[in-house]
Amino acid sequence: xxxxxxxxxxxxxxxxxxxxxxxxxxxxxxxxxxxxxxxxxxxxxxxxxxxxxxxxxxxxxxxxxxxxxxxxxxxxxxxxxxxxxxxxxxxxxxxxxxxxxxxxxxxxxxxxxxxxxxxxxxxxxxxxxxxxxxxxxxxxxxxxxxxxxxxxxxxxxxxxxxxxxxxxxxxxxxxxxxxxxxxxxxxxxxxxxxxxxxxxxxxxxxxxxxxxxxxxxxxxxxxxxxxxxxxxxxxxxxxxxxxxxxxxxxxxxxxxxxxxxxxxxxxxxxxxxxxxxxxxxxxxxxxxxxxxxxxxxxxxxxxxxxxxxxxxxxxxxxxxxxxxxxxxxxxxx
Length: 333
Known about the structure:
The chain is an alpha/beta fold and about 325 residues long. It folds into two domains: about 20-210, no CATH class; about 220-235 and about 255-330, no CATH class. The protein contains ten helices and five strands. It has a five-stranded parallel beta sheet with strand order 3-2-4-1-5, sandwiched between helices. Helix 1 packs across helix 3 (about 80-100), helix 2 (about 55-65) packs across helix 3 and helix 9 (about 255-285) packs parallel to helix 10. The two termini are about 20 Å apart.
């Protein structure tokens, strides 16, 4: 008989303990960190970063250090590599632009930032130690606001010597071209900062600076994507379609369009198979009922049907979890 795991104690708050020497070491290691990936689930290494309109950030850093402004950087949150891109922006792009314009900034050029407290569950205590010394403030996401973390972030925005970084999307969405739903925390902290400045009779101006991040492959690697799809199809019990012979790197636009369509169709086919498998599981084991969405022949309609099925599946899975937790709560201890 398997015994349930004991409940873990709540995650304690990790106070910010900024250490500029730790930041300098991370900045020094940045070229290596950008290119090397030690986990198989991480995206490909970053070969080159292009930054535009960086002069505006240089101006805001100078105003912050002169006591004329406070500002929050609100970047997109596309991939887990975003913090590395942000480190490059501050340690390389802002520093170089300031030097070119004859503006002296405090070194190292860095930021405070908000991160999810649960990251240390999979990253370990060492990750919490490093994020704390890099100027991070943990926030526990949930139904109830984490007032301890919010107050710490609010204090740093008002009194810190560096700007604050908060991703309005709250989590990665994996889409360079699509903006996810925005959380209200960035705007709320900006209003709080303005109120705190007024209460303290200070004249700084508060800025919220949106920062876009977009990733793209230097060269499309269709063979690698096809290999990954073949592995997923094999593990899912699907028979992979017959593969065309490998092509030379230089490809005609029509050929590239055909490869994009083929990969898209295979991804859609794989998604439909996984949805069907999970729907059958929840129907058989938990007696859930699923409405059928019939797509037309158009590919967009098929994708829309998959999206509807996915949302329905998530709803049924949450229903099962809620029923289980209610039963568990009613059980005697």
